[in-house]
Amino acid sequence: MTQQLFFSVGEPSGDQHCARLIQALSQQHAGLQLRGFGGPEMQRAGCQLDHDLTQMAVMGVVEVLPKLRQFFRLADQAEAVFASGQVDAVLLADFPGFNWHIAKRAKKYNLPVYYYLPPQLWAWAPWRIRKLRRTVDKVLSVLPFECEWYQQRGVNAECVGHPFFDAVAEQQLDAAVIDSLTAQIRQGQRLVAVLPGSRQHEVTRNWPVMLEAIRRLSKQYPDARFLVAAFKDKQCLWCRDQLTATDRALPIDFFVGKSSEIIEMAECGMMVSGSVSLEMMARGTPAPVIYRVGRVFYGVGRMMVRVPSMTLPNLIAGETIFPEHVSCGSPESTVQFLHRHVDAMLGDALYRERLDQKLGQLRSAIAQPGASQRAAATVLNEMGIALPPAVAA
């Protein structure tokens, strides 16, 4: 009898990661039916999409409230599918605010619930572990320390690895950009990646301090060239608009959508905190990490956040490999932080050697592909579906 797996995936990144999971599921068991809420990447991979949930990805109460009624309608829609008896299991990914409701409704019909890319309760909401234990049968953790945290609290968790490293391994880099950057290196230039964030508010808060750090570093290192990796065209234009007449002479190049190529070729970098730190780790490029926030957000964050680092590679390693600095006050402290650490990465050979050694060890231990295949095998095993001998082995 054909079995059906229902997805609920709300973030664009989750859409990408679950598209790879869907491909792996189809490879390991072609007869499994896949449907639910997700995004265009999942649909292209073969999932029957009941609704594009990624269009509703929001952050914060102000953004959620106007869409609250639509979220409840979607939860009702999912429950109707569960009640029909068509679904055999439910897989959630990210998006906990909505997915808690999906999990609760699935349990009304005794459906097994699996959580891939689980909520980072260890960082901001450890008290919600009771809710997760009640509503989730299996957590497919993507980080070793995260899996251990869940297991210590009585959760049935398994570490399958982070699918981000599958993406890095599969990615085809732009050969023209790589060739251009290689030519610059051969001419004696030292490339520094500048990653100002993917969201507009991140760019607005952090690019000005990065620019000031570039001004100071370019005087100290005339052979350095700073490669700004913007996420969108409008962010690139905004960054350019902040340059003064004097800044036009600075050794800065702007790119859109080429962060992977820049990270691959750069000697070091500076970055805003985010998932890009995993790619910096995977490609072996060290960088200081910053995050400038408003005073209210800073105060709330200090009360809620329960981990010693905001950077995933540091949490994985259990030590500081990517120096980090969160601030809400004077920008000067952030500028000095960036200058100090990029200066050390460019100018202190012994410091750089130690850093590269630690980064290399972490990279070898963690940045390995295969997470999507492992996650697929775990899901099929939980559903009681026999795996092909090669996969089972």
Automatic annotation (TrEMBL):
Pfam family, one: LpxB
GO MF term set: lipid-A-disaccharide synthase activity; phospholipid binding
InterPro entries xref list: Glyco_trans_19
Top EC category: transferase
Catalytic activity: a lipid X + a UDP-2-N,3-O-bis[(3R)-3-hydroxyacyl]-alpha-D-glucosamine = a lipid A disaccharide + UDP + H(+)
Keywords, in A-Z order: Glycosyltransferase, Lipid A biosynthesis, Lipid biosynthesis, Lipid metabolism, Transferase
A GO biological-process term: lipid A biosynthetic process
Any Gene Ontology CC annotation: membrane
Enzyme Commission no: 2.4.1.182
Protein role: Condensation of UDP-2,3-diacylglucosamine and 2,3-diacylglucosamine-1-phosphate to form lipid A disaccharide, a precursor of lipid A, a phosphorylated glycolipid that anchors the lipopolysaccharide to the outer membrane of the cell.
Name of this chain's protein: Lipid-A-disaccharide synthase
Organism from which the protein derives: Roseimaritima ulvae
Organismal lineage: Bacteria, Pseudomonadati, Planctomycetota, Planctomycetia, Pirellulales
